[in-house]
């Protein structure tokens, strides 16, 4: 006979109902209790059959994940954590790549034929008003946003404090002696507010230090890739005065900027301090290692899945929305 839910409950010292809540995510469970149950599941090798249970409850056991780019290391890491966390809940994840296309995001928010029970999405193209309208439609898809949310507080949102994160990054560069801090990563063509908030944090840190932000030191980009960072760094170095530090709005942009700086004969960090945000794995192995702001990605995934579970298992998708701010940390390496 295989391992039963009761066996897990006995091992963890809880009721079978508590085990069911941990496995399905259908109710909140104290963190310490959840850890005991998960440890018992791992020890006993328990494999819940949630498929039949989901179908009986009118659920498919599948959730959607919509991200702008599968090739982005940051989104790939987040997706991997979400897939693993969903597996522990007995869910299958259907991943969609939107490329920030507004019609692709609209289609997913409309729900189509509702083959998924809920959706986690990082929207780039849609305005807050359109996101809010989707959450109040006649048959709304249970929805959790990764990143900036509508100001009307009608949707779950999981994100870091981008103003504070950028402020921390620039404050660190100033503490290292920089006085001409440039930023790479403004995206005025997108509706999401991530770059706007990071610019706000950048300017706030400079003002606090008695410095005036210069428009010529704030470089917009079309995308957040290495090539965009390399091109933006070239633009900065052709201007006068050249920066003595750069804060890039993604680690990929920062790695591209470092490549151009080295090609132009600059030493990092002696001639130029460089800092990113995302803490992707590549940054730890660049030469020198990239100093960065690290979001707690594991917590982003865990909290997003719990929000979605709360909403899926709530009658009529009626639970109050949550605005969850996830911690970040400064990771100092050789570049700044």
How is this structure best described in words?
This protein is an alpha/beta fold and 336 residues long. The chain is 43% helix and 16% strand. The chain has 13 helices and twelve strands. It has helices at 5-12, 16-24, 31-44, 50-56, 73-88, 102-110, 128-135, 162-175, 194-208, 226-237, 251-263, 281-284, 297-312; strands spanning 62-67, 92-97, 119-121, 143-146, 156-160, 181-186, 218-220, 245-248, 273-277, 291-295, 323-326, 328-331. The chain has a six-stranded parallel sheet, sandwiched between helices. It is elongated. The N and C termini lie far apart (58 Å). The model has no long low-confidence stretch (mean pLDDT 88).
Q: How would you describe this structure in keywords?
A:
336 residues; alpha/beta; six-stranded parallel sheet; 43% helix
What Rg is obtained from the alpha carbons, in whole angstroms? 22 Å
End-to-end separation in angstroms reads 58 Å
Order of secondary-structure elements: HHHHEHEHEHEEHEHEHEHEHEHEE
Shape: elongated
Main structural class: alpha/beta
- The total strand number stands at 12
Strand order of the largest sheet: 2-1-3-4-5-11
Fraction of residues in H or I helices = 40-55%
Q: Strand fraction band?
A: 15-25%
Tally of helical runs: 13
Stretches where pLDDT is under 50 for at least 5 consecutive residues are: none
Major beta-sheet overview = 6 strands, parallel
Overall pLDDT score: 88
Ordered list of secondary-structure elements with their pairings:
Elements: H1 5-12, H2 16-24, H3 31-44, H4 50-56, E1 62-67, H5 73-88, E2 92-97, H6 102-110, E3 119-121, H7 128-135, E4 143-146, E5 156-160, H8 162-175, E6 181-186, H9 194-208, E7 218-220, H10 226-237, E8 245-248, H11 251-263, E9 273-277, H12 281-284, E10 291-295, H13 297-312, E11 323-326, E12 328-331
Helix pairs in contact: 1-2, 1-3, 5-13, 8-9, 10-11
């Amino acid at each position: 006979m295989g391992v039963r839910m009761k066996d897990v409950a006995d091992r963890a010292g809880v009721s079978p109902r508590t085990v069911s809540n941990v496995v399905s995510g259908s109710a909140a469970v104290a963190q310490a209790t959840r850890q005991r149950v998960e440890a018992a599941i791992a020890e006993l090798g328990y494999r819940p059959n949630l498929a039949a249970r989901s179908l009986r409850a009118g659920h498919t056991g599948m959730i959607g994940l919509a991200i702008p780019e599968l090739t982005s290391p940051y989104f790939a890491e987040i997706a991997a954590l979400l897939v693993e966390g969903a597996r522990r809940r007995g869910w299958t994840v259907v991943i969609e790549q939107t490329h920030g296309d507004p019609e692709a995001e609209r289609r997913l928010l409309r729900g189509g034929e509702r083959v998924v029970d809920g959706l986690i999405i990082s929207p780039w193209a849609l305005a807050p008003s359109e996101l809010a309208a989707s959450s109040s439609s006649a048959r709304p898809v249970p929805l959790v946003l990764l990143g900036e949310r509508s100001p009307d507080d009608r949707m779950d949102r999981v994100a870091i404090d981008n103003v504070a994160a950028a402020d921390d990054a620039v404050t660190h560069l100033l503490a290292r002696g920089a006085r001409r801090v440039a930023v790479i990563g403004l995206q005025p063509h997108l509706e999401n507010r991530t770059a706007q908030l990071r610019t706000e944090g950048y300017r706030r840190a400079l003002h606090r230090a008695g410095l005036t932000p210069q428009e010529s030191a704030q470089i917009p980009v079309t995308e957040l890739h290495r090539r965009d960072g390399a091109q933006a760094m070239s633009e900065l170095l052709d201007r006068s005065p050249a920066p003595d530090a750069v804060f890039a709005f993604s680690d990929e942009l920062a790695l591209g900027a470092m490549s151009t700086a080295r090609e132009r004969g600059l030493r990092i960090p002696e001639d130029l301090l460089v800092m990113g945000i995302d803490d992707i794995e590549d940054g730890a192995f660049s030469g020198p290692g990239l100093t960065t702001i690290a979001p707690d990605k594991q917590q982003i995934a865990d909290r997003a899945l719990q929000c979605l579970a709360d909403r899926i298992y709530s009658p009529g998708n009626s639970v109050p929305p949550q605005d969850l701010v996830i911690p970040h940390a400064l990771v100092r390496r050789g570049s700044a």
